[in-house]
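Before a colleague's protein record goes any further, I have to sign it off. My question to you is simply how this chain folds and whether the tokens agree. I do not need a full report, just your reasoning and any doubts. This is what I was given:
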Amino acid sequence: MNKTQMPELSRALIEIVWHFGPKGLDGQCCENLSLPEFLALDKVAGTKDCPVQEVGHALGFTKSGATRIVNRLEKKGYVEKVRSDEDARVCCVIVTKDGERILKSATERYSKELERIVSRMPEESLPKMKELLITMARLLKQ
């Protein structure tokens, strides 16, 4: 890829992130959650016996940064802190029913919006787009 294409691609990526981020979709995605809070909630929901430190790793935050995010989620009623079944010294986080509701709502909303956009694309480009997005996300997590 040549350097003249990079500004156009960068701008396109910014537009996508803005649209699907906390400011897009008319601010309706995740009720009162910031993007780091939403990502932390999603991590907790997908991790059995999720220690606070694991939330920090997922977000690239320190343990104290993760603790602040988890505390905000707990105050909003979306997670609860519990002691680990395996090691009582470890504080784990679990998702509450309200937390599950928020995640389900966001998933449905984003899925509908993605379907709306994808439905306007040429069908032959969809497999490559899917592969590209999944690969980019995977690389970002490394």
